[in-house]
Write a structure and sequence with these properties.
Layout lengths: L3 E8 L3 H13 L4 E5 L30 H20 L7 E3 L2 E6 L1 H14 L7 E3 L1 H7 L16 E6 L3 E4 L1 H13 L5 E5 L4 E6 L5 E5 L3 E9 L3 H9 L6 E8 L2 E3 L7 E3 L12 E4 L7 E4 L3 E2 L11 H8 L3 H11 L2 H12 L5 H10 L11 E3 L5 E8 L4 E3 L3 E4 L4 E5 L8 H16 L5 H8 L12 H26 L16
Parallel strand pairs: 1-2, 1-11, 2-8, 4-14, 11-22
Antiparallel strand pairs: 3-7, 4-6, 5-6, 9-10, 10-11, 12-17, 12-19, 13-16, 13-18, 14-15, 15-16, 19-20, 21-22
Helix pairs in contact: 1-5, 1-11, 2-11, 3-13, 6-7
The chain binds flavin-adenine dinucleotide (FAD).
The site of flavin-adenine dinucleotide has 41 residues, from helix 1 and strand 19.
């Protein structure tokens, strides 16, 4: 192939790169886009449906999101939904399942009820489900292996009628197919082409070097996952950042154990750590539990090599050591990391995982699930050396010179169109191109997402009922303790009937 000139080159054909190609082709007058991908197909790494949980993270059941963060993610998540509906991808790429955040035990129940009161205006479709309702909607979260109701107080905050699930691999492919349909833009994909180096051209723009060819571009966006930072470092950018790859594995059940998505309450210190159960769209809706979180000394899961790339991208020094030490000295994090190492050890892993997963399904048996071999990916979490700490979300390096590097841990697939919007606007401005904002807003956004509807009275009533029931049970327990004679179940933990 001859050397080729493009207005924009995107490195990496995962969901981030392909979403950007789509937006540039459809909503700007940029004439030529080249996408360079090192593997044989689009989305073979983290964007592939077996690598991630296939969840549209809207912020309604993700308990580590603040209201402000949820308002932002809701907007970008809805873009994915709108895109899929516009192209009629229902039940092919976009799926609807019931979903909930599940609180177990009095403390978590109160946390979720409080969260509901804070979030119901942003997510007016949310419902409060007590134990009785959960028996109908998601029975396996209620009953233990003897068929008895679990003793803990539980509550689900969820919904039955939202779009919840996406095959992000197929979505990536659709972005590129649709980008290529834009007749005013030439979109070319180069597979099996690894970018080795990016250099500033003496004339203008950049030279993107691969093993075989050289490509030229006025603007380059690197959407190469953990390798974005690797390439940035090569060019002398982002030297204050290091990459900590956190791999995630899954456990697959043999049946549709859960009707929908069940999320647990997240520890805010461990944003990648909340176990959940999800219907897997590739496995006929069978429940997949996970992901785990394991620090791995390589940048890509289930691919050869990348060990050296890990060390180069970590840029280990005193500041990284302090950042890691700060993480490890927190006992929750230390224990969590240690436990996650054990989750990868054959035989022990299933026993340990069973204990954790029984918080969701109390009757779960060892024979009902297996380690999902070949599933899972790597979240490129970023360490900031200046602040000596782990950054919890996505990170981008805008060099100000026609070059962007994006690192996208979870929920990078959900926010693909939102991240692409940010980059597209910047690129259009930088290159002096037009951006058709009206068309973009008409097609991908719903206008103002933060309009607050009336409070949902019926849900508030259920919430008050749950609180009253917990209080009644506690009062009875104290009465039994201090006034009456102990009954047979006196030493049981107090629990309400909800
Ligand atoms: C266990 C797990 C669960 C997750 N669950 C969810 C979820 O439920 N919902 C959600 O929204 N997000 C989830 N995520 C996050 C999501 O999967 C990622 O944020 C997203 O896939 C990142 O997409 P990307 O295109 O930026 O990177 P990737 O998908 O990793 O793609 C990067 C691409 O760049 C290519 N590349 C790399 N180096 C080069 C080079 N030198 N030259 C050319 N090409 C190169 C790679 O081959 C690859 O195709 C999860 C992640 C993990 C690991």
């Amino acid at each position: 192939m001859a050397n080729k000139n493009f207005e924009v080159i995107i490195v990496g054909a995962g969901i981030s790169g392909t979403a950007l190609a789509y937006e540039l082709a459809r909503y700007t007058d940029i004439k030529s886009i080249g996408i360079i991908e090192k593997y044989e197909d689009i989305a073979t790494l983290n964007s592939c449906a077996t690598s991630n949980s296939q969840t549209i993270h809207v912020g309604d059941i993700e308990t580590n999101y603040t209201l402000q963060k949820a308002a932002i993610t809701k907007r970008t998540a809805k873009m994915v939904e709108k895109y899929c509906l516009q192209h009629h991808y229902q039940n092919e790429i976009l799926f609807s399942h019931q979903k909930m955040a599940l609180g177990v035990g009095k403390k978590e129940v109160e946390f979720l009820l409080h969260r509901y009161e804070e979030f119901f205006e942003l997510f007016p479709y949310l419902e409060v489900w007590n134990k009785e309702r959960l028996k109908e909607l998601e029975p396996r979260v209620v009953f233990d292996e003897d068929g008895n109701e679990r003793k803990d107080d539980i509550v689900g905050i969820g919904t039955k009628d939202q779009w919840t699930t996406v095959d992000f691999g197929k979505l990536s492919k659709s972005f590129l197919e649709n980008a290529k349909k834009e007749s005013n833009t030439d979109v070319e994909l180069f597979l099996n082409t690894q970018v080795l180096n990016i250099k500033k051209s003496k004339k203008r723009g950049y030279i993107v070097e691969t093993k075989k060819d050289k490509f030229y571009a006025d603007f380059v966006v690197v959407d190469a996952g953990a390798h974005s930072l690797f390439l940035a470092h090569q060019m002398g950018f982002g030297l204050n950042l290091g990459c900590l790859p956190v791999a995630g594995s899954f456990y697959m059940t043999n049946e549709k154990m859960l009707k929908g998505k069940v999320y647990m309450i997240q520890n805010p210190k461990l944003p990648f750590a909340a176990l959940h159960g999800d219907p897997d769209v590739l496995a006929n809706g069978n429940t997949r539990f996970g992901p785990t979180a394991l620090m791995l000394p390589k940048l890509e899961r289930y691919k050869k090599g990348t060990y050296m790339d890990f060390w180069k991208t970590l840029r280990f020094d005193k500041n990284i050591a302090i950042a890691l030490w700060k993480l490890l000295k927190e006992s929750d994090i230390r224990n969590y990391i240690f436990r996650n190492f054990l989750f990868e050890i054959p035989f022990i892993n299933k026993y340990l995982f069973l204990k954790d997963a029984r918080k969701i399904v109390p009757s779960l048996k060892l024979s009902e699930f297996r380690y999902a071999k070949g599933f899972g990916g790597v979240r490129p979490q970023v360490l900031n050396k200046d602040e000596q700490k782990l950054l919890l979300g996505e990170a981008s390096i805008y060099t100000g010179e026609g070059l962007i590097f994006n690192m996208t841990p979870s929920p990078g697939a959900t926010s693909c169109l939102g991240n692409a919007e940010r980059d597209m606007k910047y690129i259009a401005k930088y290159l002096g191109k037009n951006f058709n904002e009206k068309k973009f807003n008409d097609e991908l956004t719903d206008g103002d997402y933060c309009v607050l509807p009336e409070p949902v009275i019926s849900q508030k009533a259920i919430l008050n009922l749950i609180r009253a029931e917990i209080q009644r049970t506690e009062e009875k327990y104290h009465q039994d303790l201090h006034v009456n004679k102990p009954t047979d179940d006196f030493w049981d933990k107090p629990h309400s009937k909800i």
